[in-house]
Amino acid sequence: MTPSILPVIMCGGSGTRLWPASRESMPKQFISLIEGQPSTFRMTVERVSGPGFLRPVVISSSDSRFVVAEQLAQAGIEADILLEPERRDSAAAVAVAACQAAARGPETIVLILAADHLIGDDAAFAAACRSAAAGAERGLIMTLGIAPTRPATGYGYILAGDEVPEAGGARRVARFVEKPDAAGAERLIAEGALWNGGYFLFRADVMTKELSLHAPKILSAAKEALDGAKRDLDFIRLDPEAFAEAPKTSIDYAVMEKTDRAGVLAVSFPWNDVGTWSALWDAAPRDADGNAIRGRVAAIGTRDSLVYGSDETLTAVVGLDGIVVVTTPDAVLVTSKEKADAVKDVVASLRAAGHAEADEHRRMYRPWGWYQRIDIGTRFQVKRILVHPQGRLSLQKHFHRAEHWVVVRGTAEVTVDDRVQLVHENEAVYLPIGCTHRLVNPGRIPLELIEIQVGSYTGEDDIVRVEDIYGRG
Predict the structure, then answer these.
(1) 355 to each of 25, 37, 75, 359, 361, how far by Cα in Å?
(2) Signal peptide location in the record (predicted)?
């Protein structure tokens, strides 16, 4: 009988090729990419939370920790959340996962999977994991090889070798191939190659041994980062100094291309890593004209296009074919599907020019809820704020601005210096420059308010936190 599998979900990417919907402040794995579907992170968690799977582990950046926690709560799923102090690519994260699993039991079967993939058949995925686990039990580091549907140049490929007896249909990996050009992709498919989907199943002791042979510095850094980890609320923060010592490289380069234990199981469930807007068009449902549409959109005389509209702004597209249009409250992208891969270059250009929109959404998520800028000008800024039930902002003060809060829904508990008061719907409170203040939602429904800031400077760095339950400085 195959033992239960420990799923480890990697969700540290920023998804710049899906800008402007995906940005550093809310990467693609946490947003709804297809109309009517939850985020790919939430779908991934739900996919590995059934029979045969242990309580999942999520490896995330610190900036995304509260989004991870909130979406887990929405799914009704508990997980261990490990926070990477910085991005060191996949090898360091896999090493941390293997070391943590080895402490649970050396022969623990670990499944490494990404948080940003779309899979069309959850039952087939679970069955594939069980089959691949049979190979992992026998000491192989298994990967799932996706049956290709086209000669894609954006994926790596795997060529399978000899069969592994009594290992659930597994084969040895003959060779990994980097992303090919179009002609190379066609040749690989003719040879029976599979897409490298980036899934790995292994026994914890096998992976740690292979890391010790092929990437000892990464293994050492991972062990020390775990040994020095500290608990912060419901999160486990890896030691930053130790983690920074891990060389920045992928698990493919560090181990998989060097080990003699690599195995592959061919699978054929519908799969898409949603790496670009054209890939999302491939994965999304399309209408009779071949258009994939989301949000408030009117498309006339338009074919074979992706129109990703905002829920707040109407997007109209007329007489265009094979294009991508993405509308958000503060940015619009228009490109051909063929050039959609170049979006990452746009983001780099915007960063170089100092445009905040490269990384920040107008709506910024916080552990207590979110705020969204409505308007900004000389000496003022207007925001819409939502605070979750029982949410509590930090006790803070500002040196350059005063604030007016108008409650439009719910009840606010407001602290201004030594005074605490309840402010109800259609009531307002004034916070003078320099006062110590806090906002709390004591109720059972979300609290919404309009905040008007007035002063010589309204930037987010004009905040001095006196007390904060979330441990922010």
Answers:
(1) 14, 30, 35, 8, 11
(2) none
pLDDT in tens, 292-316: 999 999 999 999 999 999 888 999 9
Give, to the nearest 10 degrees, the angle between helix 122-137 and helix 40-47.
60
Which of the 8 DSSP states describes residue 4? P
How does pLDDT run across 17-70, given as a tens digit for each residue? 999 999 988 999 999 999 889 999 999 999 999 899 999 999 999 889 889 998
User: CATH 3.40.109.40: does it fit domain 5-272?
Assistant: no
- In the beta sheet, which residues pair with residue 382? 375, 452
Both structure tokens of 218: 């990464």
For residues 390 and 385, what is the distance between their CA atoms, to the nearest angstrom?
15
Q: Pick 363-467's CATH classification: 3.10.310.30, 1.10.10.410, 3.40.50.10420, 2.60.120.10.
A: 2.60.120.10
Going by pLDDT thresholds of 50, 70 and 90, the confidence category of residue 13 is confident
User: How far is residue 288 CA from its own chain's centroid?
Assistant: 32
Neighbouring residues of 28: CB distance < 8 A, sequence distance ≥ 6: 13, 15, 18, 21, 22, 40, 116, 274
Q: Do the Cβ atoms of 237 and 83 come closer than 8 Å? A: yes
Supply the pLDDT for residue 353.
Answer: 96
Helix (H) or strand (E) holding 176: strand 171-177
248/242 Cα distance (integer angstroms): 13
**CA angle 277-144-41, nearest 5°?**
45
pLDDT category, 15, cuts 50, 70, 90? confident
All structural domains of the chain with their residue ranges: 5-272, 277-347, 363-467
Identity of the amino acid at 260: D
* Chain segment 265-284, per-residue pLDDT in tens: 999 999 998 989 999 999 99
